[in-house]
Amino acid sequence: MLKLGVSAQSFPVAGTFTISRGSKTTADVIVVELEANGHRGWGEAVPYARYQETVPQCLAALESVRAKIELGLSRAALATLALPKAAQNALDCALWDLEAKQLGKPAWALAGIVEPQPLLTAYTLSLDTPAAMADAARKSAHMPLLKLKLGRDDDAERLAAIRAVVPQARLIVDANEGWNAHNIEAMLACCTKHGVELVEQPLPQNDDDALLTLESPVLICADESAHDARSLGALKGKYDAVNIKLDKTGGLTQALAMAKVAKAQNFQIMVGCMLASSLAIAPAVLVAQMADYVDLDGPLLLARDRSPAIKYEQGLMHPPPAQLWG
């Protein structure tokens, strides 16, 4: 018999985090806790408005299936609950954590993957004026891989200003659906000029057919267009890579499955995150062991994190401590 606990928590952002769709000053998350026979597992997720999910909605959805969960839900049966993806993610990760503690085995061993090693993660620069982003890049020059939030007018000026102050940094770009069929060729050419390696979701999810006939020397990665393994077929010919996020797949179980299918279909893999604490990032570290690009810097963008937390050192992300998760 399981005992379910659900709650909402907020973490202040260090300043303001802005993308093409708007700004945030807090990371608002849901937390699922499961207790059984003296063991406790927990998981964190981020309901995301882009996918019509809210914190109250996800909490209510979990409460509505409390009886089914507490009867002893398995990870395999999660999909039968038809939960919002963020709610499913928090519950799935809590089940992984609980199982690891009950069996006395790390989650990576239960998943049948290699023991997690430290990985280089991107560090994200919030969307701002060209001058402000260049200043942020200058202050972050010690980070080997910078991710630039773009998707508005004068992005070319932003790129030029940033590259001028960090000539050696590796750069990736996330337009968050902010470009269009009229400017994408010019923007990809600009990205090429400034040595950008990868561009995430340049066009809106429902308006990305222009990518079928576009030749780009820069890798194009699906984010808002890529949700789970079933979504991959429609991305062929448009995207070179897919961004796997546990909040989109509905948890670690489905994220691992998506990574396997993506590899089989010759997509490169990025593992990303929403604004969240180390608890949400910890399960994603397992998937990140299979990734070509890692973007798991959510805790670095917060004013405070959980304790214990994932350790970051100048872009190097260490595996989560066992006391945190898994």
Question: Can you walk me through this structure?
Answer:
This protein starts with a strand and ends in a 9-residue tail after the last strand. The chain has two domains: 3-104, 2-Layer Sandwich (Enolase-like, domain 1), CATH 3.30.390; 119-317, Alpha-Beta Barrel (TIM Barrel). The strands form three sheets. The protein has an eight-stranded parallel β-sheet. The chain has a three-stranded antiparallel β-sheet with strand order 1-2-3. Strands 4-14-13 form a three-stranded antiparallel β-sheet, with no helix packed on it. It has 326 residues and is an alpha/beta fold. The relative contact order is 0.15. Helices cover 30% and strands 24% of the residues. It is globular. The mean pLDDT is 96.
User: Regarding CATH, which class of the largest domain?
Assistant: Alpha Beta
**What portion of residues belong to β-strands?**
15-25%
Low-confidence stretches: none
- Helix fraction by DSSP (H/I, runs of at least 4): 25-40%
Helix-strand layout with pairing:
Elements: E1 3-19, E2 22-36, E3 39-45, H1 55-64, H2 66-70, H3 85-103, H4 107-111, E4 119-120, E5 123-125, H5 130-139, E6 145-149, H6 155-165, E7 170-174, H7 184-193, E8 196-200, E9 219-222, E10 241-244, H8 246-249, H9 252-264, E11 268-271, H10 278-288, E12 293-294, E13 312-313, E14 316-317
Parallel strand pairs: 5-6, 6-7, 7-8, 8-9, 9-10, 10-11, 11-12
Antiparallel strand pairs: 1-2, 2-3, 4-14, 13-14
Question: What's the gist of this structure?
Answer:
The chain is α/β, with parallel strands linked by helices and 326 residues long. The protein has helices at 55-64, 66-70, 85-103, 107-111, 130-139, 155-165, 184-193, 246-249, 252-264, 278-288; strands at 3-19, 22-36, 39-45, 119-120, 123-125, 145-149, 170-174, 196-200, 219-222, 241-244, 268-271, 293-294, 312-313, 316-317.
